[in-house]
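This section describes the prediction task in plain terms. A model, or a person checking by hand, is given the sequence of a single protein chain and must write out its three-dimensional structure as a string of tokens. No templates, partner chains or ligands are provided. The sample shown here is typical of the held-out split.
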Amino acid sequence: MHSEAKLSRRGLIGKSLGVVALCLTPKAWGGEGFWNKKDPAAWTTEEIFELTSNSPWAREIRLDLKAKGGAKGEDSVNAVRDPTTGEFRGGSGTNGGQKGEKPPSAVVTWESALPLFDAMKYRLPADFIGHYVIGVKNLPILVDAGPQRQSAEQLVDWLKNSATLSAKSKDPVQAGVVATSRGGSMVLFGFLKELLPLSEKDKEVVFALNTNQLALKAKFEPKEMMYQGKLAL
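The expected answer:
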């Protein structure tokens, strides 16, 4: 299926199960997940939801919002902007630190992993071939809502320069491709595989996004990311 089908099935899952619970706690699966016991055609909606929200390939991460949006000297306005079109998608409702407010969270998924393909039946954009692809859903891209707005190209470059993928004893790799998916609700980050060869022997792989406005870090363990007897990245 193409991206339209992917969006449709994601939407159905979200509606049927409601909002993702905050602060999901990763656990050790050790090959015992349903994805290694059942054929993908037999996976239930609830199991697909688990795979894409709290599994070896998915993490829910609290965001560190560093600053408010808004031009200097003006009222701050938080907005979510699609880095592909440059269009705003409305305010996020968070301002990076009002008292009593919990920081928002984002779901980070390893989108290029085979189990996610089998679950969602979609294809990544052609630009992401040969890349590890990390998706960040519900990422509030806070930008200046004043007169000095960034262009879509500048916003994409800003995200590329702010995202890295790393493993212990290996140099971090910067994102080479960035795009949005699912109507702008997810940002995809592509990292060239040949620059960061990974295996199940790597104890921890870290995706980090660190801008002047927000930061997040998601840790993945390759030894847990085994699917049908093979490493699925």
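For orientation: The helical segments are 3-17, 45-51, 114-120, 152-162.
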